[in-house]
Amino acid sequence: SAADFSLEGSLAARGALPGLDPQAGGPTSSSGGDSPRSSCSIPSVPMSELVEDQDYEPAPELAQSADTADDLWQAKARAAKVSASMLSLDEFVERVRALRNLPHRTFVVLNLFAGPRRQGDIEEWCTKLCDEAGLPLLFCSVDLLVDSRWDLAAPETLSALMSLAEEGLIDVVLGGPPCSTWSKLRFLPGGPPLRLRGRYVWGLPHLTPSQRARVREGNVLMVNFLALAEAVSSRGGGHLLEHPADPGADPYPSIWSTEELCSLEERTASLRLLIHQCMLGGRARKGTFLSGTLDG
Questions:
Q1: CA distance 47 to 246
Q2: Cα 114 from Cα 174, distance rounded (Å)
Q3: In the predicted model, what is the mean pLDDT of the chain?
Q4: pLDDT, tens digit, 9 for 90 and up, residues 84-124
Q5: Among 67, 133, 180, 221, whose Cα sits 20 to 30 Å from the Cα of 153?
Q6: Taking Cα atoms as reference points, which of 153, 159, 253 lies closest to residue 213?
Q7: Helix boundaries (H) for 35-101
Q8: How does DSSP assign 220-264, residue by residue?
Q9: What's the confidence (pLDDT) of residue 276?
């Protein structure tokens, strides 16, 4: 079950979900003065090569107080609407379970944190390629801000998806968990930083209640995604994680420098790749790491 998953359990036991007890300082990251893990021996990306997260806008939000910015973020989350074009969580679970009774194999791909559907997105390309190859495909793209029924931070959501994964009913899970609380733009005037590389990578102490809630939600979404990714890959499926590239320098935090992610990469024999989004049609260079168990 989801509650038994070692990654989430170890984080909770070590106080690594700030907002619960940020005074504890969270886990020590394998960065800075710590000894790096062998699976993390990937060259750091020069700061000059990184273009920050396009989903975190420094103006005018950076000019506002932290509480105001967090209030805006919370209001946006509350305003999430249900999209009729997507399956609900219950509908997805029912559809996936029904597929195993069919005489032919259907590949099931779950794309979390997908944002709204758009032309040329990964679902469109996967559908096109599977159609050309004659492969049955069930591709489900979901996002909390599009459909409030898909909240990966909710225990019941994670439990339902982990059950499917443990039964081998999800072939691939994809996702880029929210990165705004990790952004180095938060070190600009008006930020403010919510994490630091190393000891406080999972959240600074003495955050305001709204900041603590935002960091905690970011941590829970990241940890739950990693739990689901490992569950899928350990049962013969595949996963792919996308997140901004590691700046590779203090004081900037990065999920890629954490022991939790590096250990998962070791256990699943994941590969990590650096891309610049401008080479793939993006509007900015934006260094990005992809990590997972998918070939090609």
A1: 9
A2: 9
A3: 77
A4: 346 889 999 999 999 989 988 999 999 999 888 878 888 99
A5: 67
A6: 153
A7: 66-78, 89-99
A8: HHHHHHHHHHHHHHTTT-EEEEEEEPP--STT---GGGSHHHHHH
A9: 83
CA dihedral of 96, 98, 104, 107, whole degrees rounded to 10: 0
**Per-residue pLDDT tens digits for 146-158:** 778 899 999 999 9
CA distance 247 to 261: 16
How many residues does this entry show for the chain? 296
What 3-state class would DSSP assign to 141? strand
β 107-112/287-292 pair status: unpaired
pTM of the entire predicted model: 0.74
Residue entry with tokens 């984080």? 11
Residue 281 pLDDT: 67
Across the strands, what pairs with 107?
A: 137
- Please state whether the peptide bond connecting residue 253 to the residue before it is cis, i.e. omega within 30 degrees of 0: no
Could you give the dihedral angle defined by the CA atoms of residues 97, 98, 100 and 102, in that order, rounded to the nearest 10 degrees? -170
Residue 161: alpha-carbon gap to chain centroid: 15
Map tokens 């020590």 to a residue. Answer: 28
CB 44 within 8 A of CB 249: yes
pLDDT score of 23 more than 80: no
Sheet of 287-292, strands arranged across:
137-141, 107-112, 172-175, 238-244, 287-292, 271-276
